[in-house]
Design a protein that fits this description.
By secondary structure, this protein is of the alpha+beta class. It has a single domain, classed as Jelly Rolls (Sandwich). The model has no long low-confidence stretch (mean pLDDT 96). The protein binds 1-hydroxynaphthalene-2-carboxylic acid.
């Protein structure tokens, strides 16, 4: 790091600058550095993220290379056949925001993504396919476009596609958060496919009906429901949109809930789904939780910071922390999003700014 602290104020007389730099160079050899040269960057008046707004067009830039990967490597060999969506402002970090990882995963007919577990929480948002499955701790769930599936930290999970259609989903993991804490552990299961120890449908029946086994004590801070099906989310959004006026910033926005405690679906990542009525123009909004947005239905434009993007179904957009976003829905639009809000609210860091209100 020697010499890297040449961050001296231009107002400093040059003799002092030379003296101070010589001093910085001297103390750097002992792993010492002057706080006064970096204080305002370290403790900024407002968030100042290197992450940038971004959009991936599914049809134009993601789908073809993903299918090509399907010809280069099997899901089993890759362990997970995923194209990482890397934020252009965070090159080489496998991060889509400073705290989150995202990727697009392909499981072809007949393939298995072998069972493993890790301390990272994961969520999947289904983009394409008809009924391939994820198994979590011995229970399978069939996945359809728009479903939100979670595989919480340290749960055994594998994916399989016994259908005749490719399965594609967006993965969201808290990998950068876990690496920040240096708390990554992972292990492989003995077999590629874990045995089915609970019948399909057990978790939704047990926990997904506003009921719970009377003596149930949650063992995990994540939701016991591991598939939130789009058929149900869509119906709720339609009712919400019929019975309410849209919020000026969000349209009609829902959050996915952990029925055990009313909190978010995982202890680190929160997930949301919103409906923007046809012609809706939102007022600018920003919050400290950067979001990854997946377009489910509809077309329109998004203004993120000073970038304008058009969007279409299955496109993925990133709204960095404390960066203003405005949505314009050319047709009725449904947006899924996830962020680190679950972690930020626990740490009392989360803030929002509803401009103009
Ligand atoms: C993982 O376990 C999955 O289970 C997907 O599908 C992506 C990226 C990094 C580490 C683990 C999955 C992952 C991952």
């Amino acid at each position: 790091m020697q010499g890297e602290t040449v961050n001296l104020s231009p107002m400093t007389p040059s003799a002092d600058r030379v003296k101070r730099q010589a001093y910085y160079d001297r103390i750097a050899k002992h792993n010492l550095a002057p706080l006064w040269e970096s204080l305002s960057t370290l403790v900024s008046e407002k968030p100042n993220t290197p992450a940038e707004p971004a959009r991936w067009s599914y049809d134009q830039t993601v789908r073809a290379p993903l299918m090509e990967a399907g010809e280069l490597i099997t899901a089993e060999e890759a362990e997970r056949r995923v194209l990482i969506l890397e934020n252009p402002g965070l090159p080489g970090t496998a991060s889509i925001t400073h705290s989150l990882y995202a990727g697009v995963q392909l499981v072809l007919p007949g393939e298995v993504a072998p069972a493993h577990r890790h301390t990272q929480n994961a969520l999947r948002f289904v983009l394409e396919g008809k009924g391939a499955h994820t198994a979590v701790n011995g229970e399978r769930t069939a996945m359809y476009p728009g479903d939100l599936v979670i595989t919480p930290a340290w749960t055994w999970h594998d994916h399989g596609n016994e259908t005749d259609t490719p399965m594609v989903w967006l993965d969201g993991l808290d990998i950068p958060m876990v690496s920040f804490f240096d708390a990554s552990f992972a292990e492989k299961f003995d077999t590629a496919v874990q045995a089915e120890t609970r019948p399909q449908g057990d978790s939704p029946a047990r926990y997904g009906r506003n009921l719970a086994p009377v003596d149930w004590q949650p063992e995990s801070p994540a939701s016991p429901i591991f598939n939130y099906p789009y058929s149900e989310t869509r119906e709720t959004l339609a009712t919400f949109a019929t019975n309410d006026v849209p919020d000026p910033c969000h349209g009609h926005k829902l959050r996915y809930v952990n029925p055990a405690d009313g909190g978010h679906v995982t202890p680190t990542m929160a997930a949301f789904m919103q409906l923007l009525p046809v012609g809706f123009k939102s007022t600018p909004y920003r919050s400290t939780d950067a979001s990854v947005v997946s377009v489910v239905e509809g077309t329109g434009t998004a203004i993120i910071g000073n970038q304008t993007y058009t969007f279409a179904p299955r496109d993925i957009l990133v709204v960095p922390s404390w960066t203003s976003v405005t949505w314009h829905a050319a047709s009725e639009t449904i947006l899924f999003s996830f962020s680190d809000r679950a972690a930020q609210t626990k740490l009392n860091l989360w803030r929002e700014d509803r401009a103009g209100q």
